[in-house]
Amino acid sequence: MDTISRSLGQARSQRVFPEALGRALCVLAAILCLALPGFADSHIFLHTYPLSSGGSFLLANVNGSVRVEGWERNEVEVRAVKTSASDPHDIDRVSIEVSSTPGQVAVHTRYPEGPGVEVAVEYIVHVPYRVLLGSVETVNGSVVVRGVEGGGELRSVNGDVDVLDSSGRFSAKTTNGNLRLQLRQLEDGGPMNIETVNGSVVLGLPSNAGADLKILSMNGDFSSELPVTSTAGTLASRTFHAKLGRGGSPISVRTVNGGIRLIVGRSGV
What we know:
Blueprint: H1 2-13, H2 18-35, E1 41-50, E2 56-60, E3 66-71, E4 75-84, E5 95-101, E6 104-110, E7 119-128, E8 130-137, E9 143-146, E10 149-155, E11 161-173, E12 179-185, E13 192-198, E14 201-205, E15 211-217, E16 222-224, E17 228-232, E18 239-244, E19 250-257, E20 260-264
Parallel strand pairs: 2-6, 2-8, 3-7, 3-9, 8-10, 9-11, 10-11, 11-12, 11-13, 12-14, 13-19, 14-20, 15-19, 16-20
Antiparallel strand pairs: 1-4, 4-7, 5-6, 15-18, 17-18
Helix pairs in contact: 1-2
């Protein structure tokens, strides 16, 4: 702190010009950065695992966003950045465990038991284009999927969930966040459940898509660019059932505080 006092004292006694004062402040900032604890520290995890096209991928995170992108290789690349907001030793207390077996890769973020550890883990993962995302989830952060042909279960608690430039059937759920799914092609199959509490939903589908819809919007509007025919209730009511196009596999869309929009996306693969 004596160095800080001398730097400021010299600046005052010599009536330094703005340029000199700026240099003195830079010195002061550098000294404070070295003297004060609590600045972020980080560590990079980067590994590749074999996975054939059509396999499954799972990921569980707690604090941090997850981004999954499709690529043409028959392997999974997991890149994770662990960042500590306070104690850099906390980084080593959070581990990334990967289970790789024929047909499946599963990633789990493990936090220690007991008092909270202020470590965030941000994932960027590349998977084969054709893949089943068995479960991709985080608690505090967003989930983004791009360029995947398959489907899966996507979850967050405090964050948005986005599916972009993909094909298949995806279920998405969050509590505090928006949901946006833009599908090039909608496949027949099991039910799609799209649900948030505090947020809006935008579902983009090809113009020839067909589905049996169940819509619930407690405090928000519903609109559709696609042909929707109500089968129970009215389009203006909070809850109704409807056919999208000629109907098809079920899609349930629910929000409490937010609107729901069906829009025309890109058709075909």
